[in-house]
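Obj.: predict assembly geometry.
Materials: sequence records (below).
Method: joint structure prediction, all chains together.
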Amino acid sequence: MNLLIQNNFSPIGGRWAISLYPTLFSIPLVVLGAGFSEPVVVGSVEFWKWAQISLIAALPAALVLYGANLTYFKNRKVTPVSTNSVFVLGAILGFIKGSLTGLLSLQAGLITENITENISTRIFAATVIGFFLLPIVSFVTFQIDFYRNIRKNLINDLLIIESHKYESGEVAALLRSKMKKNLDQELASIFSSSRELFDPNSQIKPESQWEELSKILRNISTKNVRNLSHNLFRERIYGDIGGVSHYFSFIVRNLKFESLWIALLFAFTTFRYALIESSNINGFITTLVKFVFVYCIFIVAQWIYEKVKSNKLLSFIGLIFTSLFLFSLVSRSINYFIDLRYSNISYFIEVSWLFIVVVITSFINGLSKGQAQEIQSLFSVKDRKDIELVGLQKEEERIRREIAKYLHGIVQSRLMASAIKIEASGNSGNLDELKKEIANAYTNLTMPDLSFLDMQDRDFKSECEIIESHWGALVELDFHLKITNREFRSGFVKRIGEAVTEAISNSFRHGQATSVQVLVEEVESGILIKVIDNGQGPQSGLAGMGSDLFTSIAGDNWSLRAAEDKGAILEVAVTI
Amino acid sequence: MSRIRVMLVEDDDFTRSMVAGALQIQGIDIVGETGSVGPAMKMAEELKPDAAILDLDLGAGPNGIDLAVALRRRQPRIGIVILTTFEEPRLLNSKVSNPPAGAVYFVKKEIGEIELLYRGIQKAISNASNSSSSEVTPIKSKSLEGVTDSQLDTMRLVSQGLSNSQIAKLRGISEKSVEQTLSRLVANLGLHSAPDKNLRVQVSLLYSKLTGATSGGEPSDTK
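Observations (raw structure tokens):
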């Protein structure tokens, strides 16, 4: 992401300007390409000779490239160089390689006819190839590096979100189970062993033992229960997202036969024959016919490929080989027609070169489009998870508060209150009161109620029951549920419950309603909440009450209006 | 003279028993004690107390002010005392309503002597029976003067550790609006940036202080 704001943001002249290592790694391709694209190779011996010459000729060009890397292009990562300089350097490298290839092939006796034309054409072709090749490598490297960095940052973000998510949601569940387990094991033993001391049926002597009993209660409250709450643990669980297979699936999905590029590249790398044999019209005819044929056959291949719905990669490979087979037949026919002297190995080399051209163009296409699409998909995943995270963090906060409140506010507080009451009645010498308080302490030392710690996702009915238990004493509630038995995503019912609670509290607080009807209905696109009250109706200045919550769950799909007779009607449509 | 009859609604057992004990020593008759809204309404209906002492934060569901409003609707003469750690009700929730007319609001840490609470109960009962004192006076903390509801909501979310983007999503507004709200909040609270003081931490600490979670200054040990 931060790459976007760096001042060297330049696809060709920036930090990827000459892409030293990718360019050097492409030398074997250039070396073999020389043999493959040579128009008059008639056997394997010639093929390897061309390859050797190409390798030797490529070495000085590689040294020049390395030299440029150490001098003019040295600070490109900080200060971008001009884009033109990359084209010029490419042309220089091509010129060097073309010149040396020409001279060496002459020395090796591979060129015997039209020497001047042959060598000058070779130099010209190599210069043009270099002129385009270096910027293309730079551009492709830029793309890979650029998306890789965005991807890395995005996946980092996702991992952080995932870890927070687990801290919030999953760990909250773990906290619950851990706490329950701890309470079961630790508190149960403490409570049961201490409890018998308070048993009114035992040989307890309240008048002489009350101080000791009070001390025991204080200890359990301040040490055991308090420490237990402090020892609640956190556990981090990471998810596996954005893996390599995810990345490649997008590249494969975007493979495409770029017929024009395939035909142009193939014709361009083999046009030397037409130029060298310029006295012979056959050279032009074969180049032109093959260009047109290659163009047409890959248009058809792409058309078929688009119709295929499954096994895309296999179909793509199948179509490549089918097209190449047809090309070899046509190439043989053309050559036969114009009486060209091609050997079997020449056909093999020609078809192999076309294969390389197809693979390279398709891969570059798949790479550039696929990477962009993958990034887009990761962004949308991140957005979804971001929203999810906010909800989960709220949930975590709520559960933490509940746990803390349970331990400190109920268990600890109850025991401490009991201890103080025992002390008060002990000090006052009121034996009856003391016995009563010891009996109360005996009751308080029963294992705490853990029902809320077992809370799972509730269904709509239970959610409404809980809302009724909270608000039913203040306002008359009438719930109507029209929900099927389908399962909703985790937290969904709770969010609906929050919206209903918000609506009821608004009716009570601001509408001064005494009666509220709640309809929760499953409709085609989601859940419709309708809340009708008998209050004062929407008041100016208060219409926005709860709007944050309604907007966050329903976007713009909610409305508040006055009822015909009296009161207000709130409608919230939530998409599932 | 008959003893004042009071019901106590406080969800913390320890605080409830402490307050009940202390008021009994003052000669007040504690007719009922509970920690939640449902039983409180029932208790008030059956026992008809002179006053109710209510905690503001009663956990999930209605808060102490909601309960006070409902009690007053059914028993117009009941005195209401809100006893809380929150310096201002809006700190619990910006959408909280005003307490009923004549209610007395006490912040726990400001009660030095139980006598003060006793007098507050007397005043609440007197206010409830005196129709001239039916005006509702919003409870405002000096520390929060000029702070809007929206700023207060943002303050609460910052103190929960949420980032600006998370707050924006939760409140359905842009991240830039959150930034602006936050800067206005910081200005209204009179906080200043310093190399050794992070503003978000200062906001969170102040929130904890105003809600009674810490004494302010340094983060305190968990109780």
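Conclusions so far: The domain at 144-210 of chain B is CATH 1.10.10.10 (Arc Repressor Mutant, subunit A).
To do: check interface contacts against the pulldown list.
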